[in-house]
Design a protein that fits this description.
Helix 2 crosses helix 3, helix 8 packs across helix 9 and helix 13 packs across helix 15. The strands form three sheets. A six-stranded mixed beta sheet has the order 8-10-5-11-9-12. It has a four-stranded mixed beta sheet with strand order 1-4-2-3, with helices on one face. Strands 6-7 form a two-stranded antiparallel ribbon. The chain has three domains: 64 residues, lambda repressor-like DNA-binding domains (434 Repressor (Amino-terminal Domain)); 150 residues, 60s Ribosomal Protein L30, Chain: A, CATH 3.30.1330.10; 170 residues, Phosphoribosyl-aminoimidazole Synthetase, Chain A, domain 2. It is α+β, with helices and mostly antiparallel strands. Helix content is 38%, strand content 19%. A hairpin with a 2-residue loop joins strand 6 and strand 7. This is Phosphoribosylformylglycinamidine cyclo-ligase. Keywords: ATP-binding, Ligase, Nucleotide-binding. It holds the Pfam family HTH_3. Belongs to the AIR synthase family.
Length: 414
């Protein structure tokens, strides 16, 4: 099948190398310049009788015109796996989705205008990078691109929310082993769609084809969020003290971490994919996006009603919680109060690992930690419960250990 756009770009390049305008080329061929314009836009191709005339004029073969590329190079960027023509076509098609810096389109980065941000005198820029890796591999294998990208966005928003930052924009870098235009366009369009859902801007999606670094079918998505933090609203966890209350916002599942273990499990015991959890099949369940906690917490942050926030990321909730506990204090947590999502009961039954191993790997039902003073506990719980389930799971006490886990999680599947 002929690639009209590639042929059009090839003809445009040869015309410019010959120092001809579209009208001058049209006059030489005794046709209208609109016909030349249509070729170069990829809307049509030259008729059979004009192909040889073009070939003679540009000193190429008809075959080269119809392929949209020169035959002569033994080595070329395209033959190495990078087709710059297709990249140009994709970038041109995506210019209506991603804002191009109008003052200098050669600048391939992006600009965010600070007047769009919250008004404050003392602002700080906040940044966080996310590379999903194993979850991404599973998402691509089973066809969960939308869920993956929304999960990346929610995870990044939740990450910078921990210090009180407002998300401004997201940028992404897509590194692929081959030029798959449809795939790259899909990812960029989903990023654009999902960032709008969360009221942040998608500034740019940079694509890089690296056939020497990745296998033909492989892809790496690296995403960066940039936020802005009013110094007056910065959450200083050094102020956490004895008798503060530890609240947990219940997770809706695995979230973004622990997928290396899950991938090994699927490869070793593939029948786990037949499991049903909450009326969903296993893959559907593990590919759910993380909840975004911004709306539930931002008012509390602005009103300075929280003393500590923790997004439960890799290595389980206890390691993440320990990071914000000041010296001389201990987070005493009652595991029996945590609502354990059914997916973890399923995983533990197949993995046959200890409770400690599960707690070191997964969030085990704790999506976000919120630390408050005792007098604000009820108010904060009631506020968060308008969005997500929130319960008290512990208390800050004096102690030399940063965390103490009491009782056990409920591993009985209903």
């Amino acid at each position: 099948m002929l690639d009209y756009q590639k042929i059009g770009l090839f003809l445009s390049k040869k015309r410019k190398l010959s120092k001809l305008t579209q009208k001058q080329l049209a006059d030489k061929l005794n046709i209208s310049f609109q016909a030349v314009s249509r070729w170069e836009k990829g809307l049509s191709i030259p008729s059979v009788d004009l192909l040889q005339s073009l070939a003679d004029l540009f000193q190429v073969t008809v075959d080269e015109i119809l392929k949209g590329e020169d035959n002569w190079p033994i080595f070329s960027y395209e033959k190495s796996g990078v087709d710059v023509t297709k990249i140009d076509l994709m970038n041109n098609d995506l210019k209506d989705i991603i804002d191009i810096y109008q003052y200098n389109p050669a600048f391939r980065g992006a600009v965010y205008y600070l007047e769009d941000a919250m008004p404050a005198k003392s602002l700080q820029i906040v940044s966080k990078v996310q590379e999903p890796v194993t979850k991404q591999i599973l998402a691509l294998e089973y066809g969960y691109i939308d869920e993956l990208i929304e999960d990346i966005i929610c995870t990044l928003i939740n990450d910078i929310l921990m210090i009180g930052a407002k998300p401004l924009y997201i940028t992404s870098t897509l590194i692929v082993g081959n030029m798959n235009r449809k795939f790259l366009e899909k990812i960029i369009k989903v990023f654009n769609e999902k960032t709008k859902k969360y009221n942040i801007k998608y500034l740019t999606g940079q694509s890089s084809i690296k056939p020497q670094a990745l296998y033909f079918h492989q892809c790496l998505i690296s995403t960066t969020i940039t936020g802005i933090l009013d110094k007056e609203l910065e959450i200083d966890t050094r102020q956490i003290c004895e008798n503060d209350i530890i609240l947990a916002i219940t997770s809706n599942g695995i979230h973004h971490y622990g997928y290396s273990l899950i991938d090994s499990l699927i490869k070793t015991i593939p029948q786990i994919k037949k499991e049903t959890i909450n009326g969903r099949n296993f893959i559907d369940e593990i590919m759910k996006k993380q909840d975004c906690y911004y709306d539930a917490l931002i008012d509390l942050i602005i009103k300075k009603k929280v003393k500590g926030l923790v997004n439960i990321s890799g290595c389980g909730f206890q390691r993440n919680l320990m990071r914000i506990i000041p010296d001389g204090l201990c987070a005493s947590v009652d595991l029996n109060k945590i609502v354990l999502p059914e997916i973890y009961q399923c995983l533990k039954s197949f993995l046959k690992v200890s409770e400690d191993e599960m707690l070191d790997t997964f969030n085990c039902g704790v999506g976000y930690i919120v630390i408050v003073t005792p007098d604000r506990k009820d108010e904060v719980i009631n506020h968060i419960n308008r969005y997500f389930s929130c319960i008290q799971i512990g208390l800050i006490k004096k102690g030399t250990r940063k965390i103490k886990l009491n009782n056990h999680l409920n591993w009985n599947r209903s």
